[in-house]
Design goal:
mainly alpha, globular
């Protein structure tokens, strides 16, 4: 009887090992044949993490008009709204460049804009890009760098001017690689960093650079 039990147990163990091996082999075959599906997701991932250039016509047009680098404007749009023209923040900022109501009124006054625009028009890509680009050009002229213009766009020009006046920030020597930590607001530090890193990526876009140059050449020819 004991010998029969041992044989029975031995047979059961062998069967269990056989079943396990077969399952492992089946899992391996499934993995091999599923590989093409994994590869197909790669282009989607690259697209998701890309640096889009939507609304290029308006960006290049108004960047040239207000003497700004279009690639910087794209970086701000990407950081502010991810190119969602209907974006609206919790505090009421609207559109691609997230224009606030008080900023809209100030820019409209500065531009002496008599087109009858209202704050609702900040959902319109062209108007939004024009107003946002003008505002950034003003901040750039005021503070002398894209870094501080970004900080003022995020935190307000009065806040940045106050940090300069009290010596917290040295506008002559300020960059994300040297003294970004001098900026008192962690959120503004993060914002400046994101914009400037996106700016660097847009500078690597050779097709965008060609479009910028072609636009300039066409205007010279027309002139």
């Amino acid at each position: 009887m004991a010998n029969r039990k041992r044989k029975s147990n031995s047979g059961s163990l062998g069967l269990a090992i056989f079943v396990t091996v077969m399952l492992l082999m089946a899992a391996g075959l499934i993995f091999i044949f599923r590989q093409p599906e994994v590869k197909e997701t790669v282009p989607k991932a690259k697209k998701y993490f890309s640096y889009p250039t939507e609304y290029e016509e308006y960006v290049i047009k108004y960047a040239k008009e207000y003497e700004m680098d279009p690639r910087y404007i794209f970086a701000v749009i990407r950081t502010e709204s991810s190119f969602i023209e209907t974006a609206e923040s919790e505090v009421g900022a609207r559109g691609l460049m997230q224009i606030m109501p008080d900023a809209f009124d100030w820019i409209k006054f500065r531009l002496d804009d008599d087109r009858g625009l209202t704050f609702d028009d900040m959902y319109d890509p062209e108007y939004n890009i024009q107003y946002g680009t003008y505002y950034l050009s003003y901040l750039y002229d005021l503070f002398g760098s894209y870094e501080l213009a970004s900080g003022a766009y995020h935190q307000g020009m009065n806040a940045v001017q106050g940090w300069i006046d009290d010596g917290t920030i040295d506008p002559e020597h300020f960059s994300i690689d040297e003294n970004l930590d001098d900026m008192p607001s962690d959120l503004t530090q993060d914002y400046i960093y994101k914009v400037m890193k996106a700016f660097e990526k847009y500078k690597e876009n050779t097709e965008l650079e060609e479009d910028m140059n072609n636009g300039s050449d066409e205007e010279q020819d027309n002139g």
